[in-house]
Structures
1.
Amino acid sequence: MNISVIKKPIITEKSLLLASQSNTYVFEVDRLANRKQVAEAVSSIFEVVVLSVRTTLSHKKVQRTGKRRMSITKAPTKKAFVTVKKGQTIDLFDITGNK
């Protein structure tokens, strides 16, 4: 089991809505990680039962920024939508402060 599969949680309005309504949590993961590796990493780190994992790939993006409008290339990323068993939660996504 490799813990470095998960890079960081993605905490946005949409991901918090998914977490509260359907127990689905969003993480940025390593591009080479597969669904099974992501499920094992989440279950071992947060001690929850993972029901399903869905992944999406985003391609590299070219962005123009700065006074001289220089081109910057953003690296491609991979997101994982992890659904956990009903009644279990991941505390990173709890913004109310209640436990």
2.
Amino acid sequence: MRIVIDSNVFVSALLSPQGKPAVIIQRWHEQVFDLLVSPAILSEYRKVLQYKHIKRYLSEKEIDEILKDLSIFAVEIKPKIKINLIKDDPEDNKFLEYAVGGKARFIVSGDNHLLAIKEYGQILIVTPATFLSKTQ
């Protein structure tokens, strides 16, 4: 099974090691599923980790190491499809593009723009709690 994790879920996993997003990352470490990334997703993760209110919890070196591990151990994809479904926040379309391009089964997100779609083709767009309940 392949999944795409939205940046808000990824950052939540780092900041709250006891929460559901952290459980998802732990399950990825246990090789329960493949995590799909791309240079654009890694760039967005870095951008969000650089926010002042988040960066106070992680050093630049820790951020570099986390993203390096992702680039090594996650499955990197380069989608060839453009999707323009989310008009209110067009940046969110990239998560759909990567999920389609990487043949993901799930997009795990806390973003209301993505969650409102619920399903795109065979891809389910779910919260961390729903993902964990559907995959246990």
3.
Amino acid sequence: MFLSSTGLAAAATSGVDITATEGSSFTKRVVNLQDCTFESATIDWGDGTPTSAGEFETGNPPGVKGTHTYADEGTYQGSVTYTTDCTTNGIVNFTATVGDAPISAQGRDISPPAGRQFTAVVSHVTDANPGASASDFTAQIKWGDGSQSAGQVTAATYSGGFDVKGTHTYQHTGQAAVNVAVTDLGGSTASSSSTANILAPEPLVAKFTYSPSRPCQQEPIIVDPSGSQGGTQFSFAFTNVVADPPGDFSYTYPLPFGPQKVWVPSISSPADWWSLPVGSEVRIRRPPVTVTLTVNDDYESVSTDPQTITFANPDDVYVVRVGYYFIGGSGPWHPGYAVYYSYLERKSRGPCVLAFRLPLASAFASFTSAPTTLARESSLTTTVKCRRGPDCVGTLYAVAPSRRRPAHQASSAKRKRRRLPYIAKKTVVVPGGSKRKVTLHLTKRGRRLAHTGHLKHVHLLLLMRGDKPHKRKVKVRRVP
């Protein structure tokens, strides 16, 4: 409890009008008190925000002060409910006049080409009100060639503040003075000046080659755009990639851009070949595909005529085989485990000698270098990457490492098909050309290993149809 100053003439309690700036915090007196003992006060600031406690302020006369921030300019009617030894729940009113926060603008030089429409940032706006939004502003751009247009104000992604964008076409090369006028809802204004250096347009040229001239199925095709000119982005479009039903896909690369490896998926018949008995024959087909290169810049694009790629082995016959992938174990009680999987083996060599075992393109997935994390001793998180093309579908296992079994026991163990001793597993679907974080929930045994601190490494095993298993031993990093 505070006591007011003594020896003063008694005066009536009254509100104190205040001024403030939007978005800026302030602490000001809102009540003058009569000569009584202060007990408590609650301030309603009049802008719909929650009330706040008032603080006693000494002086002649004493009073009540408060701290607040008004989000927008305007006039607000506030009130204070107070209690002293003279008055219980007394109410006084005050008026808050809130001014518009100042804004500033800084011009941005641009270098557009003559004769082409462009969109560019011509000014950057800063508002002293941290709660401002892009919709609070309007902008008008004078392009320096006798024309003007409205600017589009957007939030600046990295630098904070707001950017003013405009769309225009200069007809001639040279220089032009760009002037921007910005106004916000409260009436504050700012202006900026910059220079447009108008350049002769650089011609875009789209050319590419590919190799080998007659690739084998599942062999990477190298596309090389070395003959192209200009542009900021290259896109290769492949059509007739999937024969039934028809489909296509594209690869987009920013500059700098060099030769790239591309895999085109094959079509197997029957598609569910991995479920066939061992020794069954499967046809693998790859009809010709067409490829088009498009070169883009900020103003236009140009494309090549389609080129057709014909494969050396467009219709192959393969045989279903079964192999195993051994997860090494050690120690007399941990013999290791064999994981069995199906694969396709070419029936005859043909023109493509190197591609003897064929993993289908839809199974081309791998682990990324991202760390594997352990959260709350209950789940592991890792990242799986799928190469461009169809989606990757498979099962991801986490297997706890074990000690190696003695050599005299290992041979008999390999001959046995044992159940995979995983501590977590999950079916994963990763869209082609992307990577995805996968969270695996630990089994009871896995949680026990994590709790006792023995889960410092795990074997990650990815089993996907038509592809050999992918295995990696990784460190486990604990996270909160």
4.
Amino acid sequence: MGSDAFAAIDVLGPGASERERLLADTLLGAALERSARANLGAKDSRTGAALSKWERLVNLVPNLKPLQPLRFEGDLDTSEQNEAILMVVAQYVRGLPKNTAGDLVRSDTVSGSVSAVKLIAEEHFHRKVVCATGGLALRRAVQHMAREDGPAGERGYSAPMRRQHLDALAAPGSGFDIRSPGWATDRWSTMQASHQALMRGGEPGTVDGGEFSSAKGITWAHVTWTDPTTGRPAVVTLGNGAVHSVVTLAVVPIKDQTGKAKRFPCPIISKHPAADIAAGRVDLTCPYTAIRRSWDARVDAAPWTELRTRPFFVGPDGVHAVTTEQLRDLAIRPAARCLGLVASQFGGSALRRGGATDLKKELGSAQAKAMITQRGRWADYDIGDIYSRASVEEQAETSAALNWASTFRTMEEANPGWVQPTHWARR
């Protein structure tokens, strides 16, 4: 896509010593490497796929002009040239075979691929390639593809793994090992934590094929057992007066590509009173206990100065961060099979879905959504509705309300000539 002139910039003035130049080159090189690695998780895979499509197109059309950086703000000539090239990319991606049935690649995939190619070029040049006022023809082309696609299809079913499932797995005869040292203990703590903190498959550790990042994943330093004000084991007093032990996980959404999302503290309490925990009571259905067992088993593996930046939730090797694939294929789906369920219906977010569903059932829709949002688990308020599953009992209560609806008059019936507005006035 052109040469990277940015990397050739000299940041030193005339007369710089050899020592200064060595230091400046080292710092600039490290900064450029950091910039190149700025994309994390899902964005990396999208840009990689888009780059492969770009390369296939260039192989077909070797004389296709490369994208060029804008020479100055408002450089419409270069912007329109680049827009035309991106429209060629869009049409090429649209025509790629999606499957043996000959279905078209959907417009949102086309849009994502074009955006990723544009992003790759801009990060390479460190300059924009399309003006802020440009890109209208490209947008119209993608909009037309969207109209051809028609309405999006129904979401595929992905089953939630709920508290009742986790409790059943802890039974001695379930066939699911949660007691042996090593992976059995670690995967159980990961499953319990994922349900409690509403985590996606890649949030305890890392996404498939990705490197663990202490900025995104959960390290030992993000697991807190003590009260910062007293230094003693953390406890919380519930509304019924019972005092329970607490461990807090600091979780950040893996889909935040900007690094702006805060880590949200997610308290996880013991099922039994703190006094029982202190006396040595062990209940393997308790998420606090599950996480504590994993902590105690590995806390002496290295000095704290080293341990604090290592991943806490690990895979079968006990060292590297657990991946989405490992959580799904070596924990969630085997658990489903032990319960006699259809394992293929359970994905990496099954525990997140289960937690959202359990919250909705226990707290009601409004309060559950409010608490999910407060925990920072979903940026969009309606995403909780997508993950949580409506219960048969909830729908039955709705039916009962319709069956025994009482007699009443509507405001429109009581006030002839008045029609309810589409939006209520707000004062």
